[in-house]
Amino acid sequence: MRTAPTILHLDMDAFFASVEQASKPSLRGKAVVVGGLGPRGVVATCSYEARVFGVHSAMPMGQARRLAPHAAYLVPRFELYRSISEQVMRLLRELSPLVEPLSLDEAFVDLDAGGAARDAETARLAGTKLRTDIRTVTGLTGSVGLAASKMLAKIASEAAKPDGLVLIPPGTERAMLEPMTVRTLPGVGPATGDHLRRAGITTVGEIAEAGEDELVRLLGKAHGHALYAMALARDERPVVAERETKSVSVEDTYDVDIHDRVRVGVEVGRLADRCVRRLRASGLSGRTIVLKVRRYDFSTLTRSETLRGPTDDPAVVREAAARLLDSVDTTGGVRLLGVGVSGLADYTQEDLFAQAAGDRAEEPAEEPGTEPAEAHSPSPAERRWPSGHDVRHTELGHGWVQGSGLGRVTVRFETPYSGVGRVRTFLVDDPELTPADPLPLVADTEGGAGQPSSGPLPLPASLPKSWSGGGGAAATSRP
Amino acid sequence: MKIRVERDVLAEAVAWAARSLPARPPAPVLAGLLLKAEEGQLSLSSFDYEVSARVSVEAEIEEEGTVLVSGRLLADISRALPNRPVEISTDGVRATVVCGSSRFTLHTLPVEEYPALPQMPEATGTVPGEVFASAVQQVAIAAGRDDTLPVLTGVRIEIEGDSVTLASTDRYRFAVREFLWKPENPDISAVALVPAKTLQDTAKALTSGDQVILALSGSGAGEGLIGFEGAGRRTTTRLLEGDLPKYKTLFPTEFNSVAVIETAPFVEAVKRVALVAERNTPVRLSFEQGVLILEAGSSDDAQAVERVDAQLEGDDISIAFNPTFLLDGLSAIDSPVAQLSFTTSTKPALLSGRPAVDAEADEAYKYLIMPVRLSG
What we know:
The structure holds two protein chains of two kinds.
Chain A: E1 7-12, H1 15-23, E2 32-35, E3 43-46, H2 48-51, H3 61-67, E4 72-74, H4 78-95, E5 99-103, E6 106-110, H5 111-114, H6 120-138, E7 142-147, H7 150-160, E8 165-167, H8 173-177, H9 190-198, H10 204-210, H11 212-219, H12 221-231, E9 247-258, H13 261-281, E10 285-295, E11 300-311, H14 314-326, E12 334-345, E13 347-349, H15 352-358, H16 380-384, E14 390-393, E15 397-405, E16 408-413, E17 422-427, E18 433-435
Parallel strand pairs in A: 2-4, 7-8
Antiparallel strand pairs in A: 1-6, 1-7, 2-3, 5-6, 9-12, 10-11, 10-12, 14-15, 14-18, 15-16, 16-17
Helix pairs in contact in A: 4-6, 11-12, 13-14
Chain B: E1 2-5, H1 7-18, E2 32-38, E3 41-47, E4 51-58, E5 60-63, E6 65-70, H2 71-80, E7 86-91, E8 94-99, E9 102-109, E10 125-128, H3 129-140, E11 154-160, E12 163-169, E13 173-180, E14 182-183, E15 189-195, H4 196-206, E16 211-216, E17 225-230, E18 233-238, E19 257-262, H5 263-273, E20 283-288, E21 291-297, E22 303-309, E23 311-314, E24 317-321, H6 323-333, E25 337-342, E26 349-354, E27 365-369, E28 372-374
Helix pairs in contact in B: 1-2, 3-4, 5-6
């Protein structure tokens, strides 16, 4: 393990919620919850003001609404988050070529590799500068952890939250870890935590004391060894610039279980098309088609089929997914469907029949305006005006949807650079009101946030699991 | 029953008949081989409800009769026997095999429970064994191997008067072979989809005979069956249901370029560069006037490049293929010179054989191969 705290972990503070607060002045200092707003939606992120009420991410939306009834509930604007994330990642890449993004709002950076820092002092300087730069470019805050290993850097950034910087000086790691609860360590969730507690182990220090053999006896070989090493603050995992994408998949949770077999088939076809679009967008193809079905009773099945050659042909994926669906009993109804492609490659074996048929339909069918999650909404109006999304009024200018229903839509006219704006209500079909692209959070930065997006993003009730392999960078794995 | 038969004759017949014995018999009697002795002939039959096989050999019959014994065991025994006449006799529920100083006593299975073998459909025509075997070999190579689309695991046999067309595809290539035969009825017209694997085994087994009889039931009795007979062996196979997709329109008729390459050096070169093409990653072919450059591998891993002489008429082209599919085709054309015709790098290429560089392509066999599209 290195001797200087030159691994940096950046974690943006309440990222989605902070973006919303930055772009909507009326929400600053208020409880904001971003996530799927359907009956089966979950919280993606909530602002610190909302956390006071006990709301946290991954909580069912209904529970969040009970805990914080007066918070603002918004549908995520992924295009905007993605573009801001790109600005942040660009800043990180200026620091070092070794940047390992974990999600839109989190990444590891190896400062040593870029020559940005060699010791504790320069590392702290780099971290402080990064936080200032992020603030200037995006207007948002991020917390930075600095340590000699990935695990500790992440623990440090957790301790730094919100809007802080924590550096763990090498040599002090074990003393710092010792009193911490075992749940601090990555890989220790509720189950392992309970297991250890029953064995009388509640702190990291106690893991170290228990010894490796005891850990292996309790948790098995792989987990036991790994956990013991971590308790001694030993973590040799390097920062890896581009993690290989291993699969591409999409899934939807439905507000109401689908019973109709034909409808299930239609949804699977639609998911297959969406999955192929993602696959193509990253220049990939794959050999194995995976279908995931969660039934009314939460029993979850996955079925897969491997083709002889990799494909990115929507017809082939749709066909394979349909064949896989044939082998699944859906009589009780399904609450979730997913289609994925793995065994990725960067070439495609053309298919005679699909090409012959595909001369009719080269591209995957365009996503229809109605998304499954919203298909059950009482009126088509609500589909067009998702809460939190941007709109433009010919006279009143830029604003965002505060809510809609009963044929009306309420818009607050404000921009990231204005003061708190006024609220006006319109008929949902008011011709002067159109969906708009998000505005950049900071008026004068080059590129990024203001890039055009294709109107309001349609979203399923729960967040789509986009990249099973993490990263998101267009990486390739060769089978 | 009591018979005497030459050891080699017996061993060969048993081995062939036992090949279609089911590995996991659905009923115990189906693990048996039915031996029937009558009129100077010993016939051996096996059946697994899909395929039936029957072979007749000359034997000295002392007492006619029928017996059902474990096929695997009889195959193992007859293979291991010394080269002396073999005597098989039955006594109640036991069968005895005596050869030289060895003596085996086998349990018999109940003959009356053994299903009747399907009737051989009426003979419809004959074809020389060699022609049939090579045609099947050329076509079956392109058949699908997994059961996701059962239709694609078959070889389509289409009979139109005196011409027979075999076709099969796994959706990545499409092989078609035509040959002439002697039909009983010159106006015959029939189509059958035969499991490729069975057809390959059958064709191989029947090469020894001069002529192979193809028996395909048009309608009525024996429908859904095809029979083959030659060299004292006859076998029937259940047909697959369904038909291959229409393929005439899949074969392009106009090309932008035609390449002519000597097959042997081409095959050698593909095999060599494919060494770095792990898991059938593509081999890339770039044709320019007078030369073909083959490449495989990627800059992350190993790479290989090789040049081969080639004649090209038309536009230069770069195209990539799964090396296995390409090699399958090159071996199937069975010609000293290969002709590859292209439209574009994403459209199917047509492979056929030429007897010599300056000869016309042999129209009897066509191998359509889908390219691999490289992204980026």
